[in-house]
Amino acid sequence: MTQNLPAHRFSIAPMLDWTDRHCRYFHRQLTQQTLLYTEMVTTGAIIHGKGDYLAWSEEEQPVALQLGGSDPAALAQCAKLAEARGYNEINLNVGCPSDRVQNGRFGACLMGEAALVADCIKAMRDVVSIPVTVKTRIGIDEQDSYEFLCDFISTVATQGGCEMFIIHARKAWLSGLSPKENREIPPLDYDRVYQLKRDFPQLTLSLNGGVKTLDEAKQHLLHLDGVMMGREAYQNPGILTQVDRELFGLDSAASDPVAVVRAMYPYIEAELSKGTYLGHVTRHMLGLFQGIPGARQWRRYLSENAHKPGADVEVVEKALSLVADKIPAATPVS
Questions:
Q1: The domain over range 257-326 is classified in CATH as 3.20.20.80
Q2: What percent of the chain has pLDDT over 70?
Q3: Fewer beta carbons within 10 Å, N or C terminal of the chain?
């Protein structure tokens, strides 16, 4: 039986320097239903940068582009480009607390400028037909009351027309904490996000922050419309082999991790032919066999050899031989 559940029911968080196009292609081999997000891309990079910051593969769908910026016109220009390139959603970053991001006047500091965020969302919604969403925190600095959060959500929803929010269930300190500390030190407050859904039942709300298992995801889904997993999905990607069955109700068997690795070979070879280094792809695959005998040898062999000149799929196959015979056929990684 196939259930027609929306992709935002489970998603993988946008993570700078991690969720690049190689990572997303790999994750798509593990789960067909999960909504994937790009790492944050600034409007300046897209409009003025020399590289193609919107590059992605059709096989990654469904995939959302996360934008960083605060100029409505520039965001609208980038959203229009992204829709033309086939992205399924545009997401505005209102959650990143880093100094560099604040200096560009985007990220979490925008929580203090709800009217500007609303203008940004409206400008994008006016030029695209795909969803335009916001990823935010529950508060910033001393502005961390529930009333502040409600005012922000209400303003962006009513004035900007935003219908979907992803809420990182921690406040952000804009000074004094590093981005890493901002992911760990401010306490999680899931109840506040649950209350937000009760107070704004018409909105689609997803939760982010501290989710480490699919059982935890299921608990959050009793209260909310979606769950976003970040570092756990990246560092232990084997968990994704269970998502389609456990969270989307599909009867498909969980992906065989060995088969997943070999399914990457055509992609790797195509990328190598374009000048991509093997390690740029395989670095995202290191955690696949976590908890399985041979996982350490897999990681070590890839880490030591994938960066060498001329490294190709033979390196991956050799690394796979160090772990594959220790896994019963078609046994999913948990």
A1: no
A2: 96
A3: N
